[in-house]
Structures are given as C-alpha cells and as structure tokens.
Amino acid sequence: MPIFNLGSINLDRFYNLSRLPREGDTMSAHARSVDLGGKGFNISVAITRAGGIVTHIGAIGASDTGTLHRIAEQGVSCNCILKHGSAPTGEAIIYVASDGGNCIVLEPGANRKMASSHIRSCLDEATAGDWLILQNETNGHETAIDTARAKGMKIALVAAPFDANALIPLIDKVDLVSANEVEYAQIAPFITADPARYADTHFAITFGADRAEYRADGKVWQVPSMRVSATNTTGAGDTFFGYLMVGLDSGMTYPEALNLANAAAALKVQREGSASGIPYRPEVDDLLQDSRTDE
C-alpha cells in the first residue's frame, strides 16, 4: 500500500574530522562533501530503495533550482514538494568523526513553513490502511494527524530530533513510534506514569550496535544488530525506519521486519553521504542471505 511521508528535505554539508568538536575548538576538516538529505527525505529514499511506494510531502525554497532534479534522481516523486516563496531549502551542517560518529546542526528553512492546505491536498488520495509518517523536522503534525485519522490511515512517528514538548503530546495519537535508546529513555517515564494511555501504541527501538526491539501488546521482540565497522552513521536510523516500514507494510512479522531494517542500516553505516548512501533492496537481501549461510 502507499506510504505518505510528511518529511524534511535538507542540503547536507559534511565535514570529516579526526574527532567531533568540543567547545572552543577550531578544527580543520580533512574532507568535505555535499549530499541531499533530511530525516524525512532519507526515509522516503529508503522506502523507495526497499521496494515500497512513497509520496513525500515536503517543501524547498522557490529559488532552489537544482533540488527537485536531485530528488527525482533518487526515485522519489516531486508531486507533493512545495516551492516556498520566502523560506530557503533546509540545510544541515554535519561533522563526522573518524570513528563514524557525528553531530548535526539544522537550519529548517522551508521544512517548517508548510501550509495546512498543502498537507491536506497531498493526503487527498490516501485511503484507509495507508501509512502516514511524521518526524520532528517539519511543521504540520496536527493537521496531518487529523486528516489521516479522518481517512482511517495508520500513523508512525519518528521521535527525532527529540523535543519532549513537541513529541510527547503526539505519542498517544499515533500507532507506531520509532526511537533510539536515548530518545526512548526520555519517553519511557511518560509511559510508566500512564500506561493505559499508551497501551495501543507500538514502539520500534534501536540500541546502536547491540540490538533492535519491537514492543507491542505487552510483548517484546528482539533481533541483534549486525557487526560491522562504521564509517558514517548519518542516516542509519532513517534507513532502518524506511526499511522497517516497508517490511511491516508488506506483511512481514515484527522480527522479519527488524532483520530487514537491521541489515539495511548495517550497510548504510559503512558508506558516506546521506540519501545517496542508502542501500538498495537486492544488496540488503544478499547480506541477509549471507548472514544465514554463516550461521
């Protein structure tokens, strides 16, 4: 079924460093690159490369003449990309350490300037049972949730970038929340304080190089992460989630969908870039087959 993704689009500027900066540092980068990214767009690319069908609902600056072409090059439809008249395309400055770790500074630009009418229009063709994805690099969450619920859609929320004031009020309004271990640790006290309120919400949680979990209906499914040497962790969580959504949308069991997502993320962390480094489904299937052969 189609997946609708209300998500950010950023121009990502990477600076490779020996380590991440500390306060007061002045450092020289030993490499620099530019890629198209944004948490939302990365997820859309991952869905596309996993074999899913996605409608990306987003915005860029009206004066940005090259980004629509670059979006189309990644196989994502531009039909619901708004060209905003006054806000520029979002940007991210990403520092990447030699061990693959990163830190990111965002300037949201047009990502947080989407009109409610644009969001509603893009959801016109959605039907009951379709998925809507949200994450915290755009505006328009309430409009999207209200429209999706009226249509009988299912809703997934990526809890990043984490902001308790923005995200906690949405958790009981969605069907699935995706979070890493740090984000979930900030969510957990609210769930513990009022478990009945969140009883119907599923959680997909990543624990870095250790494992991934799916929690639903009082049960927990776990799969171990694949052991790889990370080059750049940027976009790994987005890759994981996009592949997870395709797995769930295609009827996989929770462990099957987690394994698929884990394998995709394992390939992504070994590659540079944002959206351009997301693996294609045949590569992921090959890795899964190889891992079964090695068992």
Description:
- It is a single chain.
- With 295 residues, this protein is an alpha/beta fold.
- It has one domain: 3-Layer(aba) Sandwich (UDP-N-acetylmuramoyl-L-alanine:D-glutamate ligase).
- 34% of the residues lie in helices and 26% in strands.
- It has 9 helices and 13 strands.
- The strands form 2 sheets. The chain has a 9-stranded mixed β-sheet, with helices on both faces.
- Helix 7 runs antiparallel to helix 8 and helix 8 packs across helix 9.
Task: For this entry, give a set of tags.
295 residues; alpha/beta; UDP-N-acetylmuramoyl-L-alanine:D-glutamate ligase; 9-stranded mixed β-sheet; 4-stranded mixed β-sheet; 9 helices; 13 strands; 26% strand
How do the helices and strands line up, and which of them pair or pack?
Blueprint: E1 3-6, E2 10-16, E3 31-37, H1 39-49, E4 54-61, H2 67-73, E5 81-84, E6 90-96, E7 102-107, H3 116-122, E8 131-135, H4 141-151, E9 154-158, H5 164-171, E10 176-180, H6 181-193, E11 202-207, E12 211-216, E13 219-224, H7 236-249, H8 254-268, H9 281-294
Parallel strand pairs: 1-4, 1-8, 2-6, 4-5, 8-9, 9-10, 10-11
Antiparallel strand pairs: 2-3, 6-7, 11-12, 12-13
Helix pairs in contact: 1-7, 7-8, 8-9
Described by the principal axes of the CA atoms, the overall outline is globular
The rounded Rg comes to 18 Å
Output the CATH homologous superfamily: Ribokinase
Please count the helical segments. 9
State the CATH class.
Answer: Alpha Beta
Write down the overall mean pLDDT.
94
CATH architecture: 3-Layer(aba) Sandwich
SSE string, helices as H and strands as E: EEEHEHEEEHEHEHEHEEEHHH
**CATH topology heading:** UDP-N-acetylmuramoyl-L-alanine:D-glutamate ligase
Number of strands: 13
